[in-house]
Specification:
Order of helices and strands: HHHHEEHHHHHHHHHHHHHHHHHHHHHHH
Number of strands: 2
Low-confidence stretches: none
Radius of gyration: 26 Å
Number of helices: 27
Distance between the termini: 70 Å
Mean pLDDT: 89
Structural class: mainly alpha
């Protein structure tokens, strides 16, 4: 019905409505540019308003903003207009976005939608937008542009090179890659160089984390071995991701080997901040891995040096976004007591706004954890919910798990038993499906803490007892395994089981004494 109503409009009105649907969400400036390029104006929308397809929404300075009266009308219009006119209108919008100097993301979407496969000018323009995005520190947007250019290219060699560059842009900012099936398919069919194949291997390994984290670790180790053979710049990033994955699946020995390799790489000459990594990254990962394995004295030796290096680092005004994100992540892992309004963190959030939802979700979780540290539970919950929404929209299971680990901690601290039940069930389900062994510890500790606070002492002991098993300790004393064991001591004392409480207290004291 909506398509029929659109087709019944005068031709100038059809063009105006199509322009509105194509530029929807990009701002009125682009719509006006596109309409002017068509030789028409907003007045040509009047017939569509009368037909009930378009509404005028009051705006600032008395200027109404046109929009469709229902979101699905846009789809109906694009279908009724046909592929050719729609593609041509996207082409106008791409020219307009460039003329108005809009963000690369706006140009990229219209360029891709407005171009035919094999159009060399469109491929070249998308590569130029990718470079503009990289110059602005927008690596995820650059990856989208390069993938779009690869999809339009009819040269197999060029397509493979573009796809590898897209993978590189995507992976060097965040290891959480989302939906990359199209990119993986192009890489699988491309004739890649040894260096390019490293990025393809790494991307496949990260994608595997959405199904099986232990399998992902296997592929990450293989990718690291190949990267080491060809001295790829991807090597330290792969080692970083592989070490985290080894922690997640509870494989401490593999984590120690990987972290040692990271330090060996870091020790070679002239590494500096190579590849967006600060010079204390490898030392931090090795120290945290030693803590995981219970070698707290060895961990403290490494981490004390790393904390000093991190604390004295001065952020350049033109800091590379990859380096900044990695510094913020390491700040959090090192337990540096920076607030949720820390300039490093806020600068990273501002730089990534509208570019990389995966990394933004990760940064929101760091903000939430820091807010929680100083008792700002309402702010922490708001930030976690925003991060969860982002992660669920991206269907990123590893990211969802990280958000849920913080969410259950908030639930326990605020007495949110209803929310706890939902978050804990989802966390356990995802951790079982992906093989994320350490995530279940967050649920156990949170459930035990809530039961302890509510006086359900037997339930508290039942939830916390599994944390005394042979588990990795986590990256610090406040992680769920050490802190959950301390909660268990309290629960046992309150139930009168002083023998067991004393036994666990002795174990905790022995492990954490060097910290």
């Amino acid at each position: 019905a909506w398509g029929g109503a659109f087709s019944a409009l005068p031709l100038p009105s059809q063009a105006a409505v199509l322009g509105l649907c194509v530029t929807r969400g990009a701002g009125s400036g682009l719509l006006d540019w596109v309409l002017a390029d068509c030789g028409i104006g907003r007045a040509d929308l009047a017939a569509a308003v009368e037909a009930g397809l378009v509404q005028l929404i009051p705006g600032s300075a008395g200027r109404a903003r046109p929009d469709v009266t229902h979101p699905l009308i846009a789809s109906a219009v694009l279908t009724a207009a046909g592929e050719g006119p729609t593609r041509a209108m996207h082409g106008r919008a791409a020219r307009g976005a460039r003329a108005l100097n809009l963000a690369p993301a706006a140009v990229i979407d219209h360029l891709f939608s407005g171009s035919d496969p094999g159009d060399p000018a469109a491929v070249h323009a998308l590569e130029a937008e990718a470079q503009r995005a990289l110059d602005n520190g927008q690596a995820a947007t650059a990856a989208r542009a390069l993938q779009a250019a690869a999809e339009l290219s009819i040269s197999g060699e060029h397509r493979g090179r573009l796809a590898a560059r897209a993978a590189q842009s995507l992976l060097t900012v965040t290891p959480y890659v989302g939906e990359v099936e199209v990119l993986l398919d192009m890489l699988a069919r491309a004739d890649l160089t040894h260096q390019e194949s490293i990025w393809a291997d790494w991307l496949r390994a990260e994608y595997m984390a959405e199904q099986d984290m232990r399998a992902s670790l296997t592929f990450l180790v293989m990718a690291a071995d190949r990267a080491r053979e060809v001295d790829s710049e991807a090597l330290p990033h792969i080692l970083w991701s592989a070490t985290y994955t080894a922690w997640a699946v509870g494989d401490g020995e593999t984590a120690l080997e990987l972290a040692g390799s990271f330090v060996d790489w870091e020790a070679t000459a002239d590494r500096g901040t190579s590849g967006g990594l600060p010079p204390w990254a490898g030392r931090t990962m090795l120290g945290l891995t030693r803590f995981q394995l219970g070698d707290v004295a060895g961990a403290e030796q490494e981490l004390a040096v790393a904390r000093e290096m991190a604390a004295t680092w001065e952020m350049p005004t033109d800091v590379d976004i990859r380096l900044l994100v990695n510094v913020v992540v390491l700040d959090q892992a090192l337990g540096l007591h920076r607030s949720s309004s820390d300039p490093r963190l806020l600068t990273a959030v501002r730089r990534l706004e509208g570019d990389n939802a995966e990394t933004m979700s990760f940064l929101r979780n760091i903000q939430a954890a820091r807010a929680l540290r100083v008792g700002e539970t309402a702010l922490a919950r708001s930030l976690v919910e925003e991060g969860l929404d982002l992660s669920r929209a991206l269907q990123s299971s590893p990211n969802i798990i990280l958000r849920l680990c913080t969410a259950v901690r908030i639930d326990a601290m605020t007495g949110g038993s209803d929310a706890m039940a939902l978050h804990s069930d989802e966390l356990r389900m995802l951790s079982r499906r992906l093989g994320h062994a350490s995530a279940a510890a967050y649920a156990s500790r949170a459930e035990g803490l809530l039961a302890l606070a509510e006086g359900r002492l037997d339930d508290a002991v039942g939830s916390l007892e599994p944390l005394t098993a042979d588990l990795l300790l986590g990256i610090g004393p406040t992680d769920p395994v050490p802190s959950g064991r301390v909660d268990l001591i309290e629960a046992l004392v309150r139930t009168g089981d002083l023998v067991r409480a004393t036994e666990i207290a002795g174990q905790v004291q022995q492990v954490l004494a060097p910290s």
